[in-house]
Amino acid sequence: MTSRTAALVLTILGAGLLFFLAAGEAASAPGLMAGLIAIAAIWLASGRIRFVLAVISAVLWLLALVLAVFGSAAAVVAAVVGLAGSVLTLAKGGQWPGFSSRYARASDLEEDGLISPRQMWESLDRGLDPTRKPGDPD
Known about the structure:
Blueprint: H1 3-21, H2 28-43, H3 47-68, H4 73-92, H5 117-125
Helix pairs in contact: 1-2, 1-4, 2-3, 2-4, 3-4
């Protein structure tokens, strides 16, 4: 299991425990909000935005933990599990790809001699081999 998957599982588990086992308690509102923000940080954001969302999520989980101390044991466990997901996101989130960065091409591809898809199609339209580079033997 990757750290990203572990963070997601911990976040969903913490929010789910709060939702189903401690729904009427004071800790449930900040905990559920922290869960939503953490999921956005894990899957949708990258870079500084991911870090900021993870910090906000961790602060909300801490608030939920403080409020859960006055509630049930299930709320405390849920807040600790959710906080663990946010801490994991803070620790390892910088290494994870962003939502679209796993599909993005490097900006320096043309500097390496590779051509863009548009250039490839244009060379095919002219009847040329787009995979050949100048100076390649026949």
